[in-house]
Please model this.
Amino acid sequence: MPHERDTVYVIDPDEAIRDGLTTFLGTLDIPVRGYSTAENFLDAHTARSLGPGCLLVDANLPGMGSLALLWRLRAQRVELPILVLASTSKRYITEQALQAGAADVIEKPLVNGLLLKRLRHLLNRAPGLLAAVPCLFTLQNGTEVTIRGIEPDDAEIEQAFVRGLSARSRYLRFFSVIKELSPYMLEQFTHPRYPRNWALIATISDAGEDKEIGVARYAATEAGSCAEFAVVVADEWQGLGIATRLLRELIAVAESAGMKRLEGVVLRDNLAMLEFAKELGFTTERHPDDATIVRIIRDLATHEQVQVPAPFRTNTSGGQVREAMSSERCLRAA
Ligand SMILES: CC(C)(COP(=O)(O)OP(=O)(O)OC[C@H]1O[C@@H](n2cnc3c(N)ncnc32)[C@H](O)[C@@H]1OP(=O)(O)O)[C@@H](O)C(=O)NCCC(=O)NCCS
Model:
């Protein structure tokens, strides 16, 4: 029998926050229910009508306020973990909230990665969170790189990344001579729907802004449990281990999504990719219809075997998809 899914109950007077969280967590297939006041929430639910999940409560609720809500929920023996969102880092706010039963307090503005990291500890049945929790690592040259799920707001840096690739890298990736992504491709690439598809980007900080330097993505084929993938790294950042990290993370996400196999399509003369795929345990097969390309295939661990990676790791080391994904033909260079 399928598990009942975790729901995130957001109690926040700011409609933009409620809508933002609904969109953001929606990309991870996590249901969100929003309420503008504590009273609205209490009118809608009793302790018994709440499903599994957690509550995100703004510290500055109008009306009865957040502390009274927390005490009320405690008295009603509501056992869902509560994360309080505070607009300041004042210690007394945190202390009062924790005393009233909050599991944690985080400061607004919400940083998606941070919020996900906390939510991941609070939710049990939202495997999509694994797909989005960022991971950090440091290249041997000292550059700090973040790997995280792509978001709708990344459209600009994704397009800049594709435009900045050399013609050869673009060709190896898209199998065509596109210069940039069409609006449709850009929309698709920045709105993946876990678990059927997902994209991880590698970013560095450039004058305080995120700059994309690599991306790996998968998309489920029609068969459902098999996914096609592609990866590409900015030319000036190749050879530093970034694709290795991206693909290892992507494999973990695809496994957590229940995919049983990853497949890619690579041009026969793309020796770097073929060598790389071999190192990551992919086998190669001739393509039945096209002698210029090779299929690369790797079986994934079953769900029970999946090891959840630590949310944040640091060490030194160092897409899209024929383009490299036949299941997403619509994504081919238009
Ligand atoms: C293939 C590609 C993704 C590799 O990215 P990368 O970040 O440079 O890869 P890494 O630094 O993690 O290297 C991984 C392995 O790939 C192989 N590799 C990378 N560059 C190579 C090169 N120029 N020649 C031969 N092998 C190479 C090596 O086996 C390397 O492992 P090693 O460092 O232990 O020797 C990158 O070259 C690229 O973006 N190419 C254009 C797009 C593309 O071809 N995509 C594939 C279609 S899906």
